[in-house]
What we know:
Family: Belongs to the cation transport ATPase (P-type) (TC 3.A.3) family. Type IIA subfamily.
Domain Cation-transporting P-type ATPase N-terminal: 98-171
Main location: membrane
Helix content: 40-55%
Keywords: ATP-binding, Cell membrane, Membrane, Nucleotide-binding, Translocase, Transmembrane, Transmembrane helix
Distance between the termini: 68 Å
InterPro entries: ATPase_P-typ_cation-transptr_C, ATPase_P-typ_cation-transptr_N, ATPase_P-typ_cyto_dom_N, ATPase_P-typ_P_site, ATPase_P-typ_TM_dom_sf, ATPase_P-typ_transduc_dom_A_sf, ATPase_P-type_domA, Cation_transp_ATPase_P-type
Oligomer: single chain
Strand content: 5-15%
Amino acid sequence: MPRPPAGACRCGGAVRARAAAVPRRGPALVDAGRYVEARDETPEARQRPLDVRAARRTRPVDDARRHPSTRRCAAAPLPGIGSPAPPSRMTATDMPPDIARLTPEGALARLDADAGGLTEDEARRRLARVGPNRVEAAAQQSLALRLLNEFVHFFALILWVAAGLAFVAEAYDPGQGMRELGFAIVGVIVVNGVFSFWQEYRAEQALAALRSLLPQQVQVLRAGRPATVEAETLVPGDLILVAEGDKVPADCRLLEAHGLRVNTATVTGESAAVPRGAEPCAETHPLAASNLLLAGTLVVGGSGRALVFATGMHTEFGRIAHLTQAAGETASPLQREIARVSRLVALLASGLGVVFFFVGQAIGLPFMANLMFAIGIIVANVPEGLLPTVTLALALATQRMARRNVLVRHLPAVEALGSTTVICSDKTGTLTQNRMAVRRVWNAGAWQEPAAPASDALYAIARHCHELRPAADGTLHGDPMELALVEWATPAGSAAGPVEHPDAFTFDTERKRMSVIVAAGDGRQLLCKGAPETVLPLCTHADAGAGLLQPLDAAGRAALVRAQETMADAGLRVLALAWRAFAATAAPAESGLVLAGLIGLEDPPRPDVAEAVTRCHAAGVRVIMVTGDHPHTALAIAREIGLVRGRRPTVLRGTDIARCTPAQLQQALAPAEVVCARVTAEQKLLVVEALQRRGEVVAVTGDGVNDAPALKRADIGIAMGRTGTDVAKEAADLVLLDDHFASIVNAIEEGRAVYENIRKFLTYILSSNIPEIVPYLAFVLLRIPLPLTIIQILAVDLGTDMLPALALGAERPHAGLMRVPPRPRHERLLNLPLLARAYGFLGVLEAAVALGTYALVLHGAGWQWGAALAAHDPLYRQATTACLAAIVVTQMANLFLCRHPREPAHRFGLGGNRLLPLGLATELLAILAIVYTDLGNRLFGTAPLPAAVWGHAALGALAMYALEEGRKAWVRRRPG
């Protein structure tokens, strides 16, 4: 295999796609699952700025969203070195565009550094100029201000006005209960504000989690001598020493590398470790240059010496942190709908209050009576218990979801997930197990299953040819691919073989292979593994099975190439394993090898992912894979789990996404089957935003640092609990405790149930508004004593109705909920059918029963039309108590009627919802306490009722029940 030309990037990797010669098409897309490797590898594509939005949008890009590493800078020493700059500013430094292309000596010169490291004085001077090597926090609104905001939104302002009017009325006409009303309304404001603040408050620990991924101390060279310093004190120009197991503390240019391999999953999402070397590289993209180490990544093999060129927020790690900060919170559909309902109801209440105040003035009501009347209209129309009930219902849903291994960090996310139309899922660790495994084996000229016995030579190479190191507990640590080979080749209970290889040819980016020399019988053997293109040319024979060897002729080599391509097309990473008897000769050690076989490895899918994807499809939820891995690998996994079933899926590379205009990207994401591969953190953000512009409710899953910006920007962010980084968890709304993609489907079902339940208790709460308003209309229009006092209205809204409404919020998902598509994004929580049912039917029936019971008490006591009744008159107190009791009794019947808008109430038993009987019992006990205790009589202006009044209210409730069940039956019989 010829070596790359001078200056070319000798990137590692077992297999490259075969379609590099296919002519490049436009930015839109690769069809039929075929790829053009050159599209991701061309210098033009690689040299594009990371912030592709600046190049492809016609409108200006907010500079707060752009990091300096996304723009090209002049070939000059870092501004942070050459001139002072505030360390907190994002514009202080850029990555020199050609630092990867320079020789180690050139890189040192570019940063005005020395091969022996900086002196302590120079390091201090640079630290003062560029600032500490840490992720800076973005300015945020203080907690006190955020809490204050919960008490000054429109819904709260209406209640503040009502409370203020109540206190004014108390001052002008004491003894009417207005002071108690004022305090009750203030209590409602406080409860709503605290609940809302608690559900909106999120402990912003993403930055602390980002810092935890960076090492606290690091080995550096200072003035030619090794030293241990705090990672925060690193500056551009420092020389650091890295070895297996180290976390990289800053963005660095390698000067020396000895078998160095790095796991970059935290910033790229790619599952396999990648080799890194010190040779100049033509690549300028920091995520792809083979001689750069990025902050936050992990060294899994080898050692090296590197030159720091970017620290803190100027690193690629810092860029992702900045994107996470800039990706502001997205209001959930439920939050938007509750805000809309609050504004609508508040405007309606205020409007009615003002209108009826002027009506009262026109008909000659005294000012104070008219003011109390207007306040009563406002209070009767504002469902004070709505926000606390919504919050408590969501909290109950989180408990149910926790039992299904889903931890909710953000309450509105529960419902938002239920309305999700698209899931953008990461591959590594989400759909797959985040560990490599042997999937295909080519041995003795034939395919065989991984579980089938292979040749002794193949097993020996897999067990012994590695650079793994033992931990204190005896387990091996290092490259996941080598761990998979050892696990495959080592029988259960057996040792993994020697881990110290004094005679070894380490892996590097030029050779793309490694060899070890081990004892074998009376002699020694050289065992070799690596990329087929570098191992096969060294082989002269092949293992033919049964201990026989055969010359490797042209036909044999062609068969090997076909086997290699078959595994590559399946998205596997292919390794060639070979050996030879070793003797010290003048010939090169790695020559005259015997090919033992080819092995294909893959990060396998989770066992239950395929079923979960099927359930998503049945529920009308589209799943789009968005990964940093190779398109071959991504498409192979997508087909295996059923995410892709058609022959011509849409496969988008990161470069495709970067080149598309917003409109083109929306169109590109329209097909049913889409896979996005080789995607960076910012490109993943672009995918999420494009889907949201299409009107989709987007859920994003992920586990790495690179996923955090998209997790935060999405309508719903879902992080992995076991394998996910702290950054991903803190940026997410939900955390999957078991890391199972299937748990997302369970969460969607719960989310859909939450939305339905909110509609149920919204119908229940709003139904009682009409019997609270109608008495005030009767008071004005019919000139009768006010049938219901304001404090009694609050007794219903904040007392008897609260727990039953909460019981409706705890209803379990009904059968068939996951066999219907997500509701349209434009569908309103408070829509016309709900209002018609609550206000126009159920509420009217309740009002009729309440006023009828009120009139029954007055008529039974001999009251004459037009006669006045004082507020403390026992008859008046008993009549208003009868009206209140009738509302409560009809609401008890309404509790069963609201369990489903179409199905009969008798189909839903009490066993599935333990809160329902508790809510009924509490409602009954509350009204009895209000009616028959001295404290209840004093607080609510009530009086004891005779049994006949309860019987009348019960008959009215039965009539209401029968009429609503009749309406449901009529609706079910209607066509469509």
